[in-house]
């Protein structure tokens, strides 16, 4: 089955989560994973003024841009984003807003969906961003999968990780990468998404 992970990132923390989700999904037999990005809309002269942002963007640019055909290809679609005022970033929202033709034809109905994010603080949109990203997936008719409390460590975590999807807390300067526990949640999530997709789309 095909698993598509589309994400945005600024300082690379969400990208690290995305890679962990991809790693988890790749651990499922017959899973084919595409790790893809959205359009960068911030001015290059602004990005180049911040060394950490510039370095993250250079790595981010090596990933292919996601398009509608990738959404058609996928059996499972996972969205990831840093938090912006309790919501997803503008580039990811722009990508989603351009999928109206798929919605009109019901082309994504019945696929598996999931979300993940990175925030500066535990209460800076850690859960609201995930819920906001779920809304367009519901409109497209996806079946949303979360991260159950049977996931080791989720019930006792003091940082990232929610039943709505994996998260990480990056600190006020966004300079703290995901912890080992947060990456473990992301890998478990990817594995779960691919497993569910495999069961739904098993052709025997």
UniProtKB/TrEMBL annotation:
Region of interest (Disordered), residue spans: 157-179
Record field: compositional bias (Polar residues): 168-177
Name of the protein described by the UniProt record: NAD(P)H:quinone oxidoreductase
Cofactor: [4Fe-4S] cluster
Family of the protein in this entry: Belongs to the WrbA family.
Annotated Gene Ontology cellular component terms: membrane
Domain Flavodoxin-like, first and last residues per copy: 3-194
Gene Ontology molecular functions: electron transfer activity; FMN binding; NAD(P)H dehydrogenase (quinone) activity
Source organism superkingdom: Archaea
Protein source organism: Methanooceanicella nereidis
């Amino acid at each position: 089955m095909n698993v598509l992970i589309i994400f945005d990132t600024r300082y690379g923390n969400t990208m690290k989560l995305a890679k962990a989700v991809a790693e988890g999904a790749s651990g499922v037999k017959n899973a084919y994973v595409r790790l893809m990005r959205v359009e960068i809309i911030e001015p290059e002269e602004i990005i180049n003024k911040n060394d950490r942002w510039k370095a993250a963007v250079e790595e981010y640019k090596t990933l292919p841009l996601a398009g509608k055909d990738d959404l058609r290809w996928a059996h499972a679609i996972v969205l990831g984003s840093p938090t912006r005022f309790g919501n997803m970033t503008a580039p990811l929202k722009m990508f989603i807003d351009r999928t109206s033709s798929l919605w009109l034809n019901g082309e994504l109905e019945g696929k598996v969906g999931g979300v993940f994010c990175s925030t500066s603080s535990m209460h800076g949109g850690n859960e609201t961003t995930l819920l906001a990203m779920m809304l367009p997936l519901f409109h497209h008719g996806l079946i949303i999968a979360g991260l159950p409390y049977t996931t080791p460590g989720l019930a006792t975590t003091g940082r990232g990780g929610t039943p709505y999807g994996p998260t990480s807390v990056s600190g006020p300067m966004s300079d703290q990468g995901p912890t080992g526990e947060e990456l473990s949640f992301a890998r478990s999530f990817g594995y779960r998404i691919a497993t569910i997709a495999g069961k739904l789309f098993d052709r025997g």
